[in-house]
Amino acid sequence: DQDDRWYPDKLERLVPLLDDAVLCSARWRVVDAARSATPPRRRHGFSLAGVLAQNPVPGAAMVFRRTLLDWALPFPDSAAPTAAHDHWLLACAAAVDSCPVSPDVLQDYVQHGGNVIGHERQGGIVDPLRTRFSWTLRRARHPRRLVAEAERLSFGWRRVMAQALAERLTAADLHEHGPTLRAYAGARRLPVYRELARSCYRGDLRFPTALTFVVGSFPGATDSGER
Predict the structure, then answer these.
(1) In 3-state terms, what secondary structure has residue 154?
(2) Which of 10, 215, 12, 29 lies closest to 122, judged by CA?
(3) Helix, strand, or coil here: 112?
């Protein structure tokens, strides 16, 4: 994230939020090479269901307390190409505490065309689907593996996170988040579809993002034979 631009008062605004939370984040502008900016989206916080479905915060926008590592370490081992350290940290925080977002825009998230993981434009369906299919085609070595690889991109890393959280959370946190974790940790698709629909209804997830997951889980994509 060395190419992102922090505003001078970023830490001054964020650190006080940690008095009542284990992790907080800034709002940011998406800025391209021409210095044109996308209006920042206003968020107040993040639910675990929404975070498992989509990583909404780049790591450079986060500030967290040392105690978060009590749940986050060791990081779960995953070969899934969508695995990301900031996604895991936010999922841990959402599972054990609130994750407030500063009302102030405190940094620029710079897109220069060579980002390893960039920012998809909001509102459209074509861009997220194009990205997902591009990743799938690069990783599937045989046509018959296309569907399985698409499913792994959609749910593989989220399944790993849900399973790891289920093993690490306290009984009270499991009571609160149990249905969501069971849905993402299991091999059946229908419970995940329900979680995605609920996240869209609550505003935690944009419909184009949910659609990319559904497209990536055609019948036959998992090895359990569920319907």
Answers:
(1) helix
(2) 29
(3) coil
Alpha-carbon distance of 148 to 144, in angstroms, equals 8
Beta carbons of 178 and 18 less than 8 angstroms apart: no
* Residue 153 one-letter amino acid: L
Alpha-helix runs per DSSP H in 54-156: 69-72, 85-96, 126-139, 146-151
Q: What is the pLDDT along the chain (227 residues), one digit of tens a residue?
A: 567 788 999 999 999 999 999 999 988 888 876 666 655 566 667 888 888 888 888 888 899 999 999 999 999 987 776 788 899 999 999 999 988 888 888 988 887 665 544 444 444 444 555 555 555 555 556 556 655 555 666 678 888 899 999 999 988 888 889 989 998 888 777 888 888 888 888 777 777 777 766 765 533 333 222 22
Both tokens assigned to 196: 């995605």
Please name the amino acid found at residue 105. Answer: V
Residue in 164, 160, 194, 200 with CA at minimum distance from that of residue 180: 194
> Using CA atoms, how far apart are residues 169 and 71, in angstroms rounded to an integer?
8
If residue 25 lies in a helix (H) or strand (E), which one and from where to where? strand 23-32
What values do phi and psi take at 30, rounded to 5?
Answer: -90, 120
Distances in Å between the alpha carbon of 67 and those of 14, 21, 89, 97? Answer: 17, 10, 11, 11
pTM of the complete model beyond 0.85: no
